Amino acid sequence: MPPAKPSLPSPAHSATPEIAPSAADYRASAWSPSTRRAYQSGLKDFRAWAQSEDRPWLPADAATVSAYLAHLANLGRSPATITQRLSAIRWAHEAEGHPSPTSHAEVRTTMAGIRRSKGTAPANRKDAATADRVRDMSNACSSDLLGIRDRALILLGFASALRRSELIALTVEDTEWTPRGLLLTIRSSKTDQEGQGRQIAILPGRSPETCPLRALLIWLEAGGIAEGCLLRRVDRHGNVGESLGDRAVGEIVKRLAKRAGLDPARFGGHSLRAGFITSAVDRGARVDRVMDQTGHRTAAMIRTYTRRTDAFEDHAGAGLL
Q1: 237 classed as catalytic
Q2: What is the C-alpha radius of gyration for the chain, rounded to an integer number of angstroms?
Q3: Within 13 A of 127's CA, how many CA atoms are on the CB side?
Q4: Which residue of 33, 77, 162, 225 has the fewest CB atoms within a 10 Å radius of its CB?
Q5: Catalytic residue flag (residue 305)
Q6: pLDDT score for 133
Q7: φ, ψ for residue 241 (rounded to 5)?
Q8: How far apart are CA 35 and CA 285, in angstroms?
Q9: Phi then psi for 238, rounded to 5 degrees?
Q10: What pTM was estimated for this model as a whole?
Q11: Cis peptide before 59 (omega within 30 of 0)
Q12: Is 258 one of the catalytic residues?
């Protein structure tokens, strides 16, 4: 019988006078909740596949892992997803004190072949929700509490250029209202696993109808929110609940895109962040100032968002024929 499935440690408990966090608690905090969920899901899939093939999964040998990678590639999984599964397998082996087969030459060569065969470019990149599109989406919001929440989310999501996980993690305590606008404290993010935090500024909009500050204030008052999560669920009866999940951001963007006459299949939760970057660069914003807002560490990442929109600008072939 195969060994019991290892579980990622639970998140660290808050310190109390009676019980202080243990070393295991601190080790658990090395992974974000989303990473723990991804690892658990990946290990569950790897274990089920290995058992169906009558192969040992923990510890696994390089041949088993390589065969699993090929299985995932044949199912159409992206290289990014397959790489994440490799990380989960490596963690499981290291957690149990086994040498990790993921560093074996056979596994590395198999992964390189998958990347070369399938490419690493995103297969289904969503369209950017640029400023004009966001205005259309905002205007398409209903006048009820749900619509008030949606307008605040769509405008704040665009103006902040935050990732979905960062956006839904915002709390009232993370806001600082100033005469010049709103300061938001981002306490942790995908690229800030140690929680050093950073602040970004949200400026007033040119029009009251699309001002993110005004939309947020209206939502907070209408929802009776004085503390805790900024963006929350609203049920069909108009009751305000707990914080949104990151998938809800994409669902809201799609719904508003459809109401605005756009193809909802071409938009998702990341469209707001991409839309800010695209719109800002198109208006001549300095790349380093865009990076201050988005939290990107290299200008090359900004370039991935603007490559399509500026492909015709200052073209090297202009006037040659």
Answers
A1: no
A2: 23
A3: 14
A4: 33
A5: yes
A6: 95
A7: -110, -145
A8: 33
A9: 85, 15
A10: 0.66
A11: yes
A12: no
Identity of residue 78: S
Q: Which residue bears the tokens 């305590």?
A: 173
Dist CA 309 CA 195 (whole Å) = 34
Adjacency order of strands within the sheet including 181-186: 175-178, 181-186, 198-202
Look at the chain and count its residues.
321
The pLDDT profile of the chain, 321 residues, written as one tens digit per residue, is: 444 444 444 444 444 445 566 555 555 556 566 677 778 888 899 999 999 999 999 999 999 999 999 999 898 888 888 898 998 899 888 888 899 999 999 999 999 998 888 765 555 678 889 999 999 999 999 999 999 999 999 999 999 999 988 999 999 999 999 999 999 999 876 555 555 678 999 999 999 999 999 999 999 999 999 999 999 999 988 899 988 887 899 999 999 999 999 999 999 988 999 999 989 888 888 888 888 888 888 777 777 766 555 665 666 666 667
* Catalytic entry in 85, 126, 163, 232: 163
Range 294-300 contact pairs with CB under 8 angstroms and sequence separation of 24 or more: 294/161, 295/186, 295/189, 295/191, 295/192, 295/198, 296/191, 297/191
H helix intervals, the chain: 23-28, 33-52, 62-74, 79-95, 105-118, 131-139, 145-160, 164-169, 212-223, 246-259, 271-282, 287-294, 299-306
User: For the residues of 180-199, what is the DSSP string, one character each?
Assistant: TEEEEEE--BTTBTT---EE
- Active-site annotation holder among 93, 135, 232, 296: 296
Non-local CB neighbours of 186 within 8 Å, separated by 6+ positions: 162, 166, 170, 174, 192, 197, 198, 199, 200, 295
- Tokens coding 304: 């991935």
Torsion of CA 117, 124, 47, 54, to 10 degrees: -40
| Residue 201 three-state SS | strand
Q: Which one is catalytic: 190, 286, 308, 315?
A: 190
